[in-house]
Design brief:
Blueprint: E1 20-24, H1 30-41, E2 46-47, E3 62-66
Parallel strand pairs: 1-3, 2-3
C-alpha cells in the first residue's frame, strides 16, 4: 500500500508524559515489545543503560530496563507512573 516508514521520535522538552517503565527478565523478548511500542506510538523508548546522573530522574515517557538490574539499582524512584 501507501504506508510510509518514520522513525520513532523522543518526546520534546515541554512534554509531561505519563511515564511507563518496561521491565523484563534478560532474554525474555523485550526488544520485540519496545520495537512494537515505538511503531504503534511513534515515541522513542529510552533505555536506562544510557541514563545517568540527574538524567535518570527525568520522565521521558517510555523507558526499558531489565530485572534484576545489572547494577542492582532502581534509579527512577517514584518518577514513573506505571
Amino acid at each position: 500500500g501507501n504506508c510510509e516508514w518514520t522513525d520513532a521520535q523522543p518526546l520534546g522538552d515541554d512534554a509531561d508524559p505519563y511515564g511507563t517503565l518496561f521491565a523484563s527478565y534478560p532474554a525474555s523478548g523485550m526488544r520485540v515489545a519496545w520495537q512494537q511500542t515505538e511503531g504503534i506510538t511513534g515515541i522513542q523508548v529510552g533505555d536506562d543503560f544510557h541514563l545517568g546522573g540527574e538524567g535518570a530522574y527525568d520522565k521521558v515517557g517510555l523507558i526499558k530496563t531489565q530485572y534484576p538490574h545489572l547494577e542492582g539499582i532502581w534509579s527512577y524512584r517514584a518518577n514513573m507512573d506505571q
